[in-house]
Amino acid sequence: MARLILFYKPYGVLSQFTPEPGAAHRTLQDFINIPNIYPAGRLDHDSEGLLLLTDDGALQHTLTDPRFAHTRTYWAQVEGIPTSEALTKLRQGIQIRDYKTRPAQVRLLDNEPQLPPRDPPIRFRQSIPTAWLEITLTEGRNRQVRRMTAAVGHPTLRLVRVRSGHYTLEGLQPGEWREITAAAVPPTGSPPRARKDRSRKPARSARVNSNSR
Length: 213
Hints:
Elements: E1 2-9, E2 38-39, E3 48-54, H1 57-64, E4 72-79, H2 84-92, E5 95-96, E6 99-100, E7 105-108, E8 130-137, H3 144-151, E9 156-164, E10 167-168, E11 177-182, E12 205-209
Parallel strand pairs: 3-9
Antiparallel strand pairs: 1-3, 1-11, 2-3, 4-8, 4-9, 5-6, 7-8, 9-10, 11-12
């Protein structure tokens, strides 16, 4: 049975267990003491939110291979108030360096989402308003959300991944994790035609570890 860990990664934590030489950033080993598990994907050190970890290589592949179109939903606090034109560009795909992003689901949130405060907090400038976007992607390129919003003139100030597939941050606080025992995780998109999806629904959550550091 595959093991799946849902971890609420705090700001400033690297998505790896091994510290970087000479770096001051905390790592996953400061929060999770489970042998032989590895992140399925990553979050940059300056991003927060849901990080999945597993001990199963096939499951890790299913969660990270773009061909499965595994959805990831983010809340991004951006500088300024995006126009409908900017939102349309984000939805249709943005040219970033040598690639164009896939079409995305993007909406402007009516209210600031209820999130734990970030430590340290973002720097506010009274002369520049901010807004929150909900962005759902089916790919996970390096710093993609930040590059997308910057490309339409709205740099990201705070970024939180709130959902990965059908898993969410519900019930977790920064630094906490929940373990789920699963035979497999159903992909949110279709796998290649040559492969058959034989996944089953995961078991219910087993426990929540609240010993955040």
